[in-house]
Amino acid sequence: MARTTRLLASLAALSFVVASCGGSDSSTTSDGALSTIAEGKLTVCSDAPYEPFEFQDKDGVWTGFDMDIVRKIAEANSLELEVSVQPFDGIWLAPAAGTCDMVASSLTNTPERAKAAAFTDSYFDAFQSVLVRSDDAAKYTTLESLAGKTIAVQTGTTGETFAKENATSSTIQSFDEASAMFLALESGQVDGVLQDYLINKERADKQGTSAVSIKFEDTPEQYGFAVQTGNTALLEVLNKGIATLKDDGSYKTIYDKYFIG
Amino acid sequence: MALSKRKKAMYMRYVMYIVSIAILIVVILFIDWGRLGNAMFRWNIVKDQFPNILTKAAKNTVVFTVLGFTGGISFGLLFALMRLSTIRPYRWFAATYIEIFRGIPLLVTLLILGFGIPIATGWHWPNPYLQGAIPLSLVASAYMAETIRAGIEAVPKGQMEAARSLGMSYARAMITIIIPQALRIIVPPLTNEFVLLIKDTSLISVLGVTAATKDLARFGRDGVNQTANATPLIVAGLVYLAMTLPLTQLVAWMERRTKAASR
User: Is B137 in CB contact (< 8 Å) with chain A?
Assistant: First the structure.
């Protein structure tokens, strides 16, 4: 018996060593403050750059519509905003995997995704669109006009699902990142980029060589932040934060900054 | 306590064994096997991967690899011979090429050649297989050139001298005497290069994939997205192993044989 105990004790000691090699645990604070995976920080997973929602300004500061909202909420809870850049594909699973506390990545709340993560109230309404080269803008005004052509979508996005359901006579090419899709459009590899309207619009305005020629305003989508299923504490803080920002006018200020001004 | 060197080594080994076994036991005890199986190996998802994972995804990986390897070995041989040439500009060109393509990550090369060249020139890649395989083969050729050069240099100088003294031209001696002997030396490292290429093809998807051009890794990743489960990745990994293991075993066998032959 004594031997077994000693063995168990040594195993326990060893497991402690193994566990402490595995990095930080999520700690719980005793004073009832919000506990996050990195103390004092709100770690946010995002597939960036995705202008104008998530990107870094010239000084490397995270900015954009999503980032401004999350930073305000983080600051109101005396947390510092920390961004972890992740590929979009399956990003809503990242909080459950312990990579971050939440996702702020222009993420549409869909029934499928809501099975694997908890979504906050909507903070933005979006819809799909097609970006084409400026020369083609008059030619490609409907999905039907893109029949036999190649359309770029980003892997794991609602745009990909939308394209597969609605653009059945076009070839759908999937990319890891938004920036690769823009390069593929510019290089002539694809004829259209199907994704959320404001991202396409930002690109068209900035680059000047492409234009948004199709908008699907009839099929709106809602962006939400995602947290791990069961993390009600953070979910409440975020929902309250979104509501507060809408009430005190900060939401409008941020909205105007990116979409009106 | 004075221990002999041998005893010390023996005790050391025992300690090592005990530690390894302890770690193994801890891992086995502390892993939640049910959870692991549920997240990474669900049998119904495994079955769903077939046959497309073989008929489409693995096929594409093989096509990319074979194209990349064929191009790589052709250019590699060319650059190896250029590096060994007595003509200085050839040597400089080959050396520069090798340094550039060995020094830039494949991912960057893929993006530059796959997107950059068409944007800069207005020329289009005729098909997605070439768009992925040509950058792959250019990078592979830089590595293979060095392998081939080392192999040729490992053939004793006397072989070339003897062949030339029998009246053979340099080219003929190279083709009929030196390269066949060098092949025996370089086939194992080139097979390893082939294995590396199989794995490198997983980067090509950065240039965009259609349902028809998806490679094995991309297939696995898309599977994860569709099933919200890691099983497709595990299956893709196993399919990679099914391709690479026979090759690495072949290399081991060739190396044993070469050793035996040269004893």
Answer: no
